[in-house]
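Working notes for the structural subgroup meeting. M.R. asked for a predicted model of this chain before we commit to crystallization trials. I am recording the input and output together here so anyone reviewing the notebook later can reproduce the run.

Input as submitted:
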Amino acid sequence: MKRIAFTFGLLIAMQSALMAQLTDVETVVFNAHLLKTFNLNIVSGGTQEITFADAADYNLGVIGGDGILPGSTQINVEATGNWFLDITCPDFTPYAGPNGAGTGTIPIGNLGVYCVATGAHQFGVEVDCAYQTAASALGLTNDPLNPDLLIDLGSGTNAGDITDNAFTLNWLMGTMQGSMEPTSMFDQLSAGQFGPGDFTTTATLTLTEIP
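Returned structure, recorded in token form:
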């Protein structure tokens, strides 16, 4: 009788074990879609106020903190691939500002820029720039079809976020450095190129993907 009870119990245990092992498998598919991102952001310095107040300003030009306020523009780039940045700007034209509209036009070559890399990507490594000092400043040009290359791809890749691709653009006007207009603002004014008053222009920065 004990043997029969033991056998019966064993059969129940085996049946329970077999029932516990029944499984059904389904799957979940994940499709990740990594789209390209190319963002150029102006963090600060989107408007610059330039003032020529005395003879020294007209003869020697003005720089950030001394005639140009704030004098620099902070930008960053968020890019999932390689990129380059170019710039173009039309001549200064008169507008009816607080000092009255000036006369004539100010050639844009009087406005210059040089760049400082402030992120993890540095010039000469991931990125490159031919204008890294005031002495080598780029004099802006007015040709939308042939803009000036400001920041280019260096070695490897310059893809990255805002901590990688952060830059300061430093502005100068009338300093006659680098490829800027070589004639002083005073000489141009004396020649009748333009007259005192208020002028304005808008530079365009263009971020382009490198295939």
